[in-house]
Amino acid sequence: MTNSFKKIAATSIVAALLVSSLAYASLAALKFDAKNSNVSITIKQMNVPISAKFTKLNAVIDYNPSAPDTAKAGVEIEIASFDLGDPDYNKEVLKKEWFNAAQFPKASFVSTSMKSAANGTLTATGKLTIKGKTVDVSFPVSIKKEGSNQVFDGVLPIKRLTFNIGEGDWKDTSMVADEVVIKFHVVAAQ
C-alpha cells in the first residue's frame, strides 16, 4: 500500500467513526422523570368505571425530534405498586387469579417500531408483556415539548382475559369487564 492510500483509508475510518458517534449521540436516551410520569388503568366493575395506578415504573426512551421514526422506547412497571386506593383491594389483585405478582412481578412494553403520524404523533408498535404473556400492540403516542422535557402521552385499550388477568370465577365479564384502558404520561428530559 502506498502512503497516500493509507492516509485516505485512515481518514475514511476516522470520518466514519465520527459520523457513527454523532448518530449515536442524537439517539441518546432521554432522562426518565419518575416523579412526573405515571401509568393508570380504567376498568369497569358492574359497569361502574374504576381507576387505578401503578406507582413504580421505569422508562428508557431514545427520541430525536428531527428523526422521530428512529425512536425507541421501553417501559417496565412493578406490578406490586398497583394502587386501587384500598389496601385490601390492592392485596386481592396481586393474587394468582389476577396479576399473580409473586410469579410475574413486572409488566413491560418494548417498542419494535415508531412511525410518524398526523399532528406530531407517533404510532408505537411493540410487545406488551403482562403476567408472562406477550402480545403485539400498536397505539398512538402524542409528543409535546415542555421546557427542556419531552412529554409522551397515550392510551392503549387491551382485553384483560388476553393476559389471563381474572382467572377462575373472575373470567366472568359481567362482574369485571374484559376491556381495560391503559393511559400513560411519560416525562423525560433531554
UniProtKB/TrEMBL annotation:
It comes from the Bacteria. Residues 29-189 form the Lipid/polyisoprenoid-binding YceI-like domain. Pfam families: YceI. InterPro entries: Lipid/polyisoprenoid-bd_YceI, TTHA0802/YceI-like_sf. SMART domains: YceI. Keywords: Signal. Residues 1-25 form the signal peptide. This is Lipid/polyisoprenoid-binding YceI-like domain-containing protein.
